[in-house]
Amino acid sequence: MTANPFLGVVLHALGGLAAGSFYIPFKKVKFWAWESYWLVGGVFSWIIAPWIVSFLTIPNLLNVLSDAPTGSVFASYCFGVLWGVGGLTFGLSMRYLGMSLGYALALGFCAAFGTIIPPIFNGQIFDILAKLSGWTTLVGVLVCLAGIAVCGKAGVRKERELSDEEKKKTIREFNFAKGVWVAIFAGIMSACMAFGITAGKPIANLAIEQGAPSLWSNNPVFIVILAGGFTTNCIWCVFLNYRNRTGKDYLTGSGSTLAANYLFSALAGTTWYLQFMFYGMGTTKMGKYDFSSWSIHMAFIIVFSTLWGLFFHEWKGTSPRTYRLVFIGIFVLILSTLIIGCGNYLASLQR
Fold this sequence. Notes:
It is built from 15 helices and no strands. The protein is mostly helical. It has one domain (5-349). The protein is globular, with a radius of gyration of 20 Å.
């Protein structure tokens, strides 16, 4: 498999665009409770889309899944269950903080844990630290975290500068204290996606042996991981439907409104899956230090989600200094991807 860091970064950018944009269609859903549209979107993002894409890209898909090592499947599924907790609370962070601040806080923790822990867990960290390419890549990760911190600081300034009434004009259920705790927990648990992909490498290798192009080899892994995520989210959303008496959402309402709600929820869910598809493709092109893919992915998500936050006027009424912090954070995040790309390029020269 030939490394191509530039193509890998482009693919991660597309994944970041999808992840940073997926929540927008949910804004068009009317009269449904959060748990209702989240579950409908989840059916598409965690079940339907992964199977359709995998059937289209992986030869002998069913054989790959049936012959996959049991330990790898079990570990990937379990990490998917844990990631599902993060995905569930990640949606709540968007609900309470908005797109820009919610993404920045949640993904800061997600980037740190998801990037550094896998190579430590796999015993690769000392090999990485022994080479210039490894140090370059780690510097890029640190720069990425610095950019995330700047975006987070801008969000804190926004909290101080705007009244609750002003913030709720663009974020209906704004609650900073609740949102921060949810975002922290979501970020830590969402990092389990990176662990799940690492645990699923035997499945990806088996797909390649069955004739799948390496670019698509992670698709069957996502079937397993996202099934775990669906398990968590389905249980919780059905529980909320029962407790809040919102199960009627799926069937009541005018025909046009009901159809629109299903359409926008499906669009949001499918868009969310696309981030994983492009992320999985990107990791196959990043070379020896593909662990850095997680930081690049997080950086692009924050870039696009922050831009969407500006477009939807989530920062309206804040000071010029806060606006500058937002754009400085975006610049630092873009810079981090270039540094990480250089690290991967140096790694390819050292082979």
